[in-house]
């Protein structure tokens, strides 16, 4: 088992036989911006993604770095940032998961005019909730996010829990060619109709990771953010025994992962607490086992050979204070049914029968549907219209053979049931991973007026139809 896909798996034809066993110290520190006024410049850059001896990779970056700078402010503060476009095509920035006014949501032609090359746009809004979020473009996402446009957005609690280190790991997955360049073929039919664009190189904070050094006795809060187009992570922390304290930025009663794995579909976040109770010099691998036949070592956690920071782990509470979402009234909620259809291999249903899969693929590349309709542009009629201020329950049914991480803009929702069975934590999320042929019930108060995007966050799926508009009015 090796630490990257490249060195283990047969890659794309002509793909790089990178041997990423070269020792690469992970630099876990992200450049950070915490002034109230932040300037992001979207532009091409060269970065040492794969590390020695591989050449640098040309990426699309915010401020020359991948991931973009970590924006970090406090709950209740106002976030103001400008975005200047130095790319060769239009862009926008969506602050994923933040409940903000519609005009600031960064969706082209729905909430704003896209930012043309050479132009600057100012995003300016209050942040109501603490948590781990991220920002990314909402234009040509399958290419722009894959090329590197994504960054962490951290909203700190007003009253912090006690930790020794608060760290962010941006997990990304790249498909690189033999010269370590980002491979082309964005949104091709095979990727679009199946799992999305899976890569051959996994990075943490823009580097192929080697080791993460910790001190015996310390307590670390790790904010995990999956910015990959399509890869789902299922992290096995072995003896490190993480406790999950937040899903998608929203507090949850602290608990160990139910399946033993910390699972992150595209766009999802999890905050975990690890009390480092190992001995100096010990080393613990973190294994990604989401795709069991393709398990690989993500990184080694190495205890420094130093006296422990403390002899007993901290016992202070790791329970985060609640955020500000209104509580849905389950008894009186309006109910809505949503079906996801399409895709290859047994996924042809509903709208996809119309003209046959190949016909649809050639006919504008639409392969996926929501309630039988493939997204065809922002002028489309809304998929659902929800009464403002009311509680709603949506039953989301995945009728396909593939996983879909489904995201609703402008709101967080409680995941109240899976396959009809009540969930243990009724967790708040903004992106919910639905396994093939399964269903999920979500509940929330539609308290934010506007036309909100509702889509699968596998970039190749949203680009080929799995998107719609939920109107709150
Ligand atoms: Cu991460 Cu429509 O967004
Ligand atoms: Cu999908």
Describe the fold and architecture.
With 473 residues, the chain is mostly beta strands. The protein folds into 3 domains: 22-158, Immunoglobulin-like (Sandwich); 171-303, Cupredoxins -  blue copper proteins (Immunoglobulin-like, Sandwich), CATH 2.60.40.420; 334-472, Immunoglobulin-like (Sandwich), CATH 2.60.40. Helices cover 4% and strands 38% of the residues. The strands form 6 sheets. Strands 21, 22, 24, 26, 27, 28 and 30 form a 7-stranded mixed sheet that branches. Strand 15 (243-247) and strand 16 form a beta hairpin. The longest helix has 6 residues, at 357-362. The chain is globular and about 65 Å long. The chain starts with 31 loop residues before the first strand and ends with a strand.
Distance between the termini: 52 Å
Percent of residues in helices comes to under 10%
- Here the CATH topology of the largest domain equals Immunoglobulin-like
- Which structural category fits the helices and strands? mainly beta
- Oligomeric form of this entry? single chain
Question: Which runs of at least 5 residues are low in confidence (pLDDT < 50)?
Answer: 1-28, 346-356
């Amino acid at each position: 088992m090796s630490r990257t896909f490249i060195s283990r798996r047969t890659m794309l034809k002509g793909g790089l036989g990178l041997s990423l066993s070269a020792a690469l110290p992970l630099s876990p520190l992200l450049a950070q911006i915490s002034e109230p006024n932040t300037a992001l410049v979207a532009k091409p850059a060269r970065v040492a993604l794969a590390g020695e001896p591989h050449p640098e990779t040309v990426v699309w970056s915010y401020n020359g770095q991948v991931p973009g700078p970590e924006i970090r402010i406090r709950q209740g503060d106002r976030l103001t940032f400008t975005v200047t476009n130095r790319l060769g095509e239009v862009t926008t920035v969506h602050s994923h998961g933040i409940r903000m006014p519609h005009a600031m949501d960064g969706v082209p032609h729905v909430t704003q005019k896209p930012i043309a090359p050479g132009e600057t746009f100012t995003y300016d809004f209050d942040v109501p909730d603490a948590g781990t979020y991220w920002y990314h473009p909402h234009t040509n996402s399958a290419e722009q996010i894959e090329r590197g446009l994504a960054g962490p957005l951290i909203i700190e609690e007003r009253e912090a829990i006690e930790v020794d280190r608060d760290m962010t790991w941006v997990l990304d997955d790249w498909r690189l060619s033999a010269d370590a360049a980002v491979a082309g073929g964005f949104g091709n039919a095979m990727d679009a109709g199946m799992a999305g664009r899976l890569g051959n190189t996994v990075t943490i904070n823009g580097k192929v990771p080697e080791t993460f050094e910790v001190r015996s006795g310390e307590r670390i809060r790790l904010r995990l953010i999956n910015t990959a187009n399509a890869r789902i992570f299922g992290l096995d922390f072995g003896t490190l025994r993480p406790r999950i304290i937040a899903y998608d930025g929203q507090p949850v009663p602290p608990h160990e992962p139910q399946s033993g794995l910390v699972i992150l579909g595209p766009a999802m976040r999890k905050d975990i607490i690890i009390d480092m109770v190992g001995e100096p010099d010990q080393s613990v691998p973190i294994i990604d086992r989401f795709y069991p036949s393709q398990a690989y070592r993500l990184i080694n956690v190495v205890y420094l050979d130093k006296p422990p920071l403390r002899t007993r782990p901290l016992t202070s509470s790791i329970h985060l204070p609640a955020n500000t979402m209104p509580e849905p009234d389950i008894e009186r909620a309006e109910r809505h049914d949503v079906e996801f259809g399409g895709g290859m291999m047994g996924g042809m249903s509903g709208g996809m029968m119309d003209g046959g899969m190949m016909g649809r693929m050639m006919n504008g590349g639409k392969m996926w549907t929501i309630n039988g309709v493939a997204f065809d542009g922002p002028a489309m009629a809304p998929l659902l219209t929800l009464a403002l201020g009311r509680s709603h329950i949506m039953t989301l049914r995945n009728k396909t053979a593939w996983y879909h991480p489904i995201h609703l803009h402008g709101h967080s929702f409680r995941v109240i049931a899976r396959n009809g069975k009540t969930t243990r934590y009724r967790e708040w999320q903004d992106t919910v991973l639905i396994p093939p042929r399964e269903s999920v019930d979500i509940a929330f108060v539609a308290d934010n007026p506007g036309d909100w995007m509702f889509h699968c966050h596998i970039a190749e799926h949203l680009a080929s139809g799995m998107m719609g508009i939920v109107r709150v009015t």
